[in-house]
Specification:
Layout (H helix, E strand, L loop, with lengths): L6 E5 L4 H10 L9 E6 L2 H12 L8 H4 L5 E5 L5 H9 L3 E4 L6 H6 L1 H22 L5 E7 L8 H19 L4 E7 L1 E2 L6 H10 L4 E3 L5 E5 L1 H14 L5 E4 L3 E3 H9 L6 E3 L11 E3 L7 E4 L2 E4 L20 E2 L7 H10 L6
Parallel strand pairs: 1-2, 1-4, 2-3, 4-5, 5-6, 6-10, 7-9, 8-12
Antiparallel strand pairs: 9-11, 10-15, 13-16, 14-15
Helix pairs in contact: 1-9, 4-6, 6-7, 8-10
């Protein structure tokens, strides 16, 4: 019962992942938390999340301040700001670090902003835990397939973000630092399904980069499952990776268009994009094991590594170009998730 009696902090907690994480934690299936702290700089998302949680249809002046008396604790803050991170860390037993600047083209045009959030934000958490986090048991950071053999600013920053988090096991002996790494979360904020849906509602066209582009796909609940598995069974310095299918973006677009008279427009690969994503590189396979239905990348640092790897779970890189589902299989996935009902 990993959350029983614990203060659980979620940075970026008002986003798509944070909301489903909160919902799953608050079921109490893994223990009833003492407090769940939603830490985010986005006051509009905070406000909407509070209203949705309380099932209130209109705003009242007392919504914000009464939340501190309840299990769900909303806090405005930014991982870029060390002082606000200190306050968060002092009150936390488990930290799920989901805050990120994650739009690939945006990070290409504003790389210094990506550095501030995705690298320095992680460093602020590590330093705050080291100096003030005597009660912090676990920190788990959310990474991305774009951190593997990165070619864009977002991926480069997330690759360093992983190293900052995992190396913290050397300086914070009483806290377990881990990562999870996965691909596109279906229908999350900024992902392709909401974009395609908006384009359909506007009468098209649907914009596609290339016919060949593939992406790993998992839903929000699967993303949360990876996090929970790492928290329950992970060791310091490990990175958990789900074993999931991938799909052609072209198939996704055609399924969402259906029989509508909507054109497809090819716009070419955007700044910083890959045609195929990789979740585990060929170099990482030598320290990758399989545990409870997940791939686990053991630490690159021998001082942290706890498993003697006698045989790798992979003999080649884990790419979205492999294991692509058929169009019919993708249709079934989308229907199960309710993304073809419009």
């Amino acid at each position: 019962m990993i959350f029983e009696g614990k203060n659980v902090a979620i940075t970026g907690g008002a986003g798509s992942l944070g909301r489903i994480l909160t919902k799953r934690i608050m079921t109490g299936k893994l223990g009833k938390p003492r407090k769940v702290i939603i830490f985010s700089r986005d006051e509009a998302k905070h406000h909407q999340m509070k209203i949705d949680w309380k099932k209130i249809n209109y705003a009242t002046d007392d919504i914000f301040y009464h939340n501190f008396e309840e299990i769900l604790d909303f806090r405005i803050g930014d991982v870029r700001n060390y002082e606000s991170v200190i306050d968060l860390v002092k009150d936390s037993n488990i930290i799920i670090h989901a805050a990120a600047l994650k739009q690939v083209p945006v990070c290409e045009y504003f790389p210094s902003e990506s550095i501030k959030t995705n690298i320095l934000g992680a460093q602020n958490i590590v330093m705050a835990v080291k100096n003030f986090g005597r009660n912090v048991e676990s920190v788990i950071a959310i990474s991305t397939d774009k951190a593997c053999k990165p070619i864009n600013t977002y991926g480069m920053c997330k690759a360093i973000h992983e190293r900052v988090i995992l190396a913290a096991n050397l300086s914070c002996k009483n806290t377990k630092f881990m990562c999870v790494r996965y691909g596109n979360v279906i229908a999350s904020t900024g992902s392709v399904i909401p974009l395609f849906k908006q384009q359909l509602e506007n009468g098209g066209p649907i914009t596609i980069t290339t016919k060949d582009m593939t992406r790993f796909l998992l839903n929000l609940d699967q993303a949360v499952d990876v996090i929970f598995e790492a928290l329950i069974n992970g060791n310091p310095g490990e990175t958990y990776v789900p074993i999931i299918s991938s799909a052609k973006i072209m198939d996704l677009a055609e399924l969402m268009i259906g029989d509508k008279d909507i054109k497809i427009e090819y716009i070419g690969v955007r700044p910083g994009e890959k045609t195929h994503e990789i979740l585990i590189s060929e170099e990482e396979t030598t320290r990758t094991i399989k545990r409870n239905g997940y791939y686990v990348i053991c630490s690159v640092l021998p001082e942290i590594q706890q498993n003697k790897i006698e045989k790798s779970a992979l003999d080649k890189e884990y790419s979205s170009a492999e294991g692509v589902v058929t169009k019919k299989q993708l249709e079934n996935i989308l229907r199960e998730q309710g993304h073809l009902e419009f």
